[in-house]
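Quick illustration, no need to memorize.
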Amino acid sequence: MKTISSPSAMQRWALTQKKAGRSIAFVPTMGALHEGHLSLVRRARALGDLVVVSIYVNPTQFDPKEDFSKYPRPIQRDASLLRREGVEILFHPANLYEPDASTWVKETDLSTGRCGGTRPGHFKGVTTVVTKLFNLVLPDVAVFGQKDAQQCEVITRMVRDLCLPVRLVIAPTLRERDGLAMSSRNAYLTPEERAMAPALFKILSAAAARPATSRTVWARESLAQVGFRVDYVEECGSRLCAAAFLGKTRLLDNVSISPETRPSKKLRRAAR
């Protein structure tokens, strides 16, 4: 595996591969890799001739209340994991922003509400950095995880609206044995919080099977009763999405809603 840190060197490498007719499958990450990330890498391996994984803790998607400096950065461990997976390129830039950067990519519909409502500017940072990464890696296909449902929706819309020449693949959420969605932020949980954390998935799963008129309220109340501080629970298309805190750790998850419990099109129109 080769590590590239220079953005211009990354783009030169990608252009060389394109000219040679090789396809590139890309997995963007912020590092602190776990089995969920590695499942995305394996999916990418089946989709392209060459696999590129980026590790970049993007400062512009952290809001002022979040501690960007404390985000875990075990780069040596991460590189070892990627090497074992046979990744061709680890793209690990130190910085992707000029000191006087003034150009941003902003999606203005799907990025409102949910995480966009409680983390101002978050998705502007996400869409900007993903656009930069696509321009440097030049992937034919990029793989994202379903756990970050709103992020997947926003990036899918961005790719469509900007006519970006990349195919997106959304891979299923990988979970621990007890149902907790794998996340780098799980490492912040205390042992007591870790024992409580699987309740998020269990409550969302139970709520998704309930009638549409009661599921979100029931989920919020149930989460609060077991010790979560609820950020949001919202029905988003065919999925029930939630973010909730245990202590200082914000957990994110979403589940599919059973078709028979979704409101009919007639009821949805009447509710507008």
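The mean pLDDT is 94.
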